[in-house]
Amino acid sequence: MKDKNAVDYAAFPDMTGHFGQFGGRFIAETLMQPIDELTEAYETLKNDPVFQQQFDYDLAHYVGRPSPLYLAERLSEKYGCKIYLKREDLNHTGAHKINNTIGQALLAKHMGKKRIIAETGAGQHGVASATIAARLGLECIVYMGEEDIHRQAPNVYRMRLLGAEVVPVTSGSKTLKDALNEAMRDWVTNVDDTFYIIGTVAGPHPYPMMVRDFQSVIGREAREQILERESRLPNALVACVGGGSNAIGLFHPFLDDEDVAIYGVEAGGDGIETGKHAAPLSAGKPGVLHGNRTYLMESSDGQITETHSISAGLDYPGVGPEHAWLKDIGRANYVGITDEEALAGFHELTRIEGIIPALESSHAIAYATKLATQMDKDDIILVNLSGRGDKDINTIAAIEGIEI
Amino acid sequence: MSRIKAVFENLKANNKSALIPYITAGDPHPDITVPLMHKMVEAGANIIELGVPFSDPMADGPVIQQACERALQHDVTLADVLDMVAEFRKQDQQTPVILMGYCNPIEVMGYENFAKKAKAVSLDGVLTVDLPPEESAHANKLFAEAELDTIFLLSPTSSTKRIQTICDNASGFVYYVSLKGVTGAANLDIKAVSDKIAEIRKCTTLPIGVGFGIKDAQTAKLVGDVADAVVVGSAIIKKIVEHKDDAKKIEAEIYTLLNEMRLTLDA
Description:
The complex is a heterodimer of chains A (404) and B (267). With 404 residues, chain A is an alpha/beta fold. In chain A, the strands form four sheets. In chain A, strands 3-4-14-9-10-13 form a six-stranded mixed β-sheet, with helices on both faces. A four-stranded parallel β-sheet of chain A has the order 7-6-5-8, sandwiched between helices. Chain A has a two-stranded antiparallel sheet with strand order 1-2. Chain A is 43% helix and 18% strand. The longest helix of chain A has 18 residues. Chain A is built from 16 helices and 14 strands. Chain B has one domain: Aldolase class I (TIM Barrel). The longest helix of chain B is centred in the C-terminal third of the chain and has 20 residues. Chain B is built from twelve helices and nine strands. In chain B, helix 2 packs across helix 4, helix 2 packs parallel to helix 12 and helix 11 runs antiparallel to helix 12. With 267 residues, chain B is α/β, with parallel strands linked by helices. The interface between A and B is large, with 39 and 43 residues.
């Protein structure tokens, strides 16, 4: 890899929310005031020791952090290098999403907002938002594409049990991007009492930065844990990328460690060459969507195109602007894993390690096993196991023609 | 002098407000758009706001979202919309046309390329909903060179400082969105609108248009009494939805709606 000494990663985004040409605030005037209000509140609180203490306390005692760093011995043996899994699947609610929702919900509470809204794809962010809303006594509305409601029925029920209202979104492609549009519309209409918890590192500034900051606990812990276990840093990091919050959370604390290779794994769907995928970094172009400039899946006329992935959580036509920037400056590599490969990864981890991974995380597992074959025996790959797969068993069963 | 400026000066001299209808280009069918534009001028429209269909119109309510979806069923592109403007100009060289839409179709066409094409078809202005002044220095320079007015939105939540920033970057007119929320939303508080317009006038000499919540001649009149222009969108598109399969009926109904607004505004 090239010499990256020149880049001061901590200096990004800049004051206006840009990562190079990416990021920024491409929003309607109606959203400007709430975004300014949010920026101010976050800037004040992020360095406030009381707020940080509260956040850390909740991560420890409510989420169960630090999450373990687990050496997957049989997987390592089979593929010929050391594969460690950062067990975000063991967090309360079963995925990394809770880290961010706690941060944002505490912020909402400090700002005096009584009502939180969220968008969700796979339902993990919706569940995490509903969970923290229940705990803090906030009203919670979750926007979810009609298509995803069918794919992720167990999570829909969980959200309702937690007291959230799940609103089906029927516009556009009826998936995550449309849920985000709908949540934005709710926000501009109810700005006075509403806080919008975005679940990924997308959206207008300060969301990509703020969500990254809350999720960076993953990478900080992993870095400390691997140094303790192996007395050295890993050779490679691997994480799946939809919007990219679990990936940036793992990657960010390692950006200055230039010997650590970084791989973000996008949803290759039926294969990048078929066009039926959700891999904007691998096959898209820069454009503007949901308040920021980033790589997008779009038509030659700039319409956002429908994506395809077996995993609802990766089914998004954009990606966090920091990933777009890391790709362009060459600090991170972005690759695709097909539905079929992800399914194989899912079964493999389940059978030989006794861990049922989320379909999203299965993409990372599948790529790690590919990458491992090019590594030496003592090399270390650190994979973010971003969520557990219980929510996906209906999908898997349906694919395999099994009725449960 | 820009066509938009001329329109406002002329109206002001006659103590009248501008009537600005919005339609989404290609809704419900590309063939209807140019004839409908002419019909709206005949009914008393002073400026035409032509929506560029986009797959993810984040700041719009269901009425305009669905208008975009209908247009996109016919694959109406930004290039097609510019062709429609060229077609309109063959018969009408006076009425200003502004494009309203989202950033990404222009981003993909390229700002320079778009500005060049827009100038070639005698487009008058652009209102790019998700391109605030902070992100549009480069684009605005190109637009100015192409003699395009840059119209920006102001909202009830815009601070005085913010209003000043927007007005400093705007040309043609500024567009005050009179409600919190998305297009097509419900009730209009005329007192609040009037107060905000007074605040905006302290920051600019540009004409002020008001949109969101204007559904009939009565609401148009209330707004026309305090603003320089009245923008009507969702109320027109509802007529398109009602008579989706009958182009003549659409033209006739929209003519009636706008003409009534015109007559009431001028009364």
